[in-house]
Amino acid sequence: MQNATRYLLLGLALVLGAVPAWAQSDIVFQVDMNTAIENCAFDPAEDAVSVPGTFNGFDTGADPLSDDGTNGDATADDGIYSTTLSIDNGAIEYKFWASDPLGWEDNQDTGSGNREIEVTGPETLPVADFFKADGIEDQCDVETEAYEVVFQVDMSVQILIGEFDPKTDLVVVAGGLNGWNTTADTLAPLSANPDIYVGLVEADLTVPSMQAYKFIIGEPEDAAPDGWESGSDRMFEVTGNEEDANNNGVPEVNVPLRFFNDVTDEDILTEPATVVFEVDLRPAYYFLEDNGLLPADTQTGQNIEEIDGIWINGPVANGDGLTDWATWGEDLAAIGTRQLLDDGTQGDAAAGDSVFSITYTYDAGTPKLQVGKHGINGFDNEGGFGADQNFRIEAGSQTVRSVFGAVLRNDGTYDDDSGPNGPGGDFSQAYDPYALIDNTATPPTVVAVRSGGEDDSTVGVEPTGVVPVSAELRANYPNPFVGTTTFEYALPESGQVHLAVYDLMGRQVAVLVDGVQTADTYRVTFDATGLASGVYVGQLRVGTTVLSQRLTVLN
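The structure corresponding to this sequence follows.
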């Protein structure tokens, strides 16, 4: 009965011109391998090419292409390989993969490094060239030699943080030397140190060459395990001068010991941490004001015309007991423990200043590098697919600040050129005009600005060129005063600055400065016109330092 209802709905949807989100369409994928064939990098008689993507878990063996005139292939033996797949409607990502030495295609100039399309109906995609950024090297005169390659990986941190169970999980190595096979080469624990897993892979390797590989966590029944190491491929070098240490006639390559994901015991918390995550949402407000809508949701293409709130997604958001990504959209928006607020709670320093906050606690053993992403109304609209924030935390209490749309990379620098796709256009630099980045600073900084590059958090602030020994908030002058008065404050080092005025009930009545400033002594004018006469408090917050001065208004 359920299937009958589903087909009835599908028929009605087609009559009405709408396609249900769960409908599928036949997509013909095509890739031109002629350059690789001419350069002996691809042998049609022995090698394979496939199309891994989000629709098959990026499994290199799931969907092979053929050049035999079937399954969507227009002409047999013309070097153009094809396959026809039934794909769920919606946004998908994919890239072509071929046998060694080609392996994966290089980046396609997108935030995720993948090809991207929106599936809305049956389509034959244009013939794509198998893409290598540096071209496909000529392999016709390249020599190969048999090698024994010894891999070793330290799993101690994954065991400690519960991401690897030696009793049930496996460690696998995959790379160009085994066709990126995710199940062929399993590593085993050393008897002397069971946290270290080792394995020997026999392969014919090009001499000389650089060989790519990665480690994978999986379970015995996994046909395509998803526990890949993150980041770029690892590499080892083959020179042709390797020795045959065990005298069996085959030289060895001993790949250096690595930590899985390069996370060492120095990269995890030794004590608990309490972290306030702040995000300055002004770039989104400015973009919405200037354009009438926000960049579309990366996952669904849905347009957003108003801001109802902001959520945080990914492993960083452990406040609800989950340690992975929630489904973007309504599902994420329904998780209250992932919503940042601007109401003075959850660690929010000042209500109504467009800086939203949430507080999480982390146990000892948690990785210091936390990955996540913000989303307005729960949708994926801060950065393109895969353009995630890299938050670094330390033991103890701290505040981690970010500016919406400026993606913090793993190396500590910022990138505002990886925005989500937009309705009717490329919004990869959507938030660029509203985020002022300085990757030359130590550490790199980013502040929200109004379109055109003016830092609106420090407009009217005058630096004096005097660097103090310690942070100061000097008495305003004149005081008492009618109309306006001047504050002078001093910063011994660069950092986030918040200078505001409060009444004696603790209510914020004005924000004078809210942004990143360099070490200096500054003056800023406060216009109290319209305030009732009385005593108020000026408060300067610099990092963990809070300084206050009383001022008297005589209006």
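Residues 537 and 550 are 5 Å apart (CA to CA).
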